Amino acid sequence: MSDRRARVTRTTAETDVAVSVALDGAGRFSGGTGVGFLDHMLDQLARHGLFDIEVTASGDLHIDAHHTAEDTAIVLGRAFDEALGDRLGIQRMGDAAVPMDEALAHVAVDLSGRDFAAFEGEFRQDRIGDLETSLIPHVIASLARHMGAAVHVRLLAGQDDHHKAEAVFKALARALDQATALDPRRAGAAPSTKGTLTA
């Protein structure tokens, strides 16, 4: 079993991203992407999942936030995947329903090693702050793909788009906290009848 930490970097012609993750952290987020609302959501993920996440990202924000948001999610997903290592002894699955005032989101996660993402719900506005709302499902899908996780998001209620997005990321954080947690009853065994989550 590793120390459940990872640092991953990725550089393309569009972005330069570095992410460090500690799964057994204290809920600290540091750094930034240059996209304020995305940073706010990553802070929610760290704080409510009790992960330590450091992000340093620069990208072609003169075009829009798409490449920076997507590539940050890719690298964050890879960092989670690397920090999980062989995934032995983890809970594997988690879910959480989280209210944010009038908004309510439910997120279920399975760290199966296979990727899938579903997002049910809509936003009223084209953007929240400096982030296009169409990127929120895309960020979650990119994160799931590169983490090796099935992530199901359902926005069950809400009027304010900021509240809805925040409820989603808080619920994702709580679900991931459960799924990544080590279960001492498993004694380091894979939580799968296949005997592995990485093959």
Protein model, in words:
With 199 residues, the chain is α+β, with helices and mostly antiparallel strands. Helix content is 33%, strand content 30%. The strands form three sheets. It has a four-stranded mixed sheet with strand order 1-2-4-3, with helices on one face. The model has no long low-confidence stretch (mean pLDDT 96).
Q: Mean of the pLDDT scores?
A: 96
Q: Tell me the strand order in the biggest sheet.
A: 1-2-4-3
| CATH class term | Alpha Beta
What gyration radius follows from the Cα positions, in whole Å? Answer: 16 Å
Question: What is the assigned CATH homologous superfamily?
Answer: Imidazole glycerol phosphate dehydratase, domain 1
Low-confidence segments, given as residue ranges, are none
Examine the coordinates and then state which fold CATH places here, giving the name of the CATH topology: Ribosomal Protein S5, domain 2
**Ends apart, CA distance between termini:** 17 Å
Discrete helix count: 4
Structural class: alpha+beta
CATH architecture: 2-Layer Sandwich
Query: Which percent band covers the strand fraction?
Result: 25-35%
Q: Helix share of residues?
A: 25-40%
Shape: globular
Q: Write down the secondary-structure element order.
A: EEEHEHEEEEEHEH
Number of domains: 1
Question: Tally of extended strands?
Answer: 10
Largest sheet: 4 strands, mixed
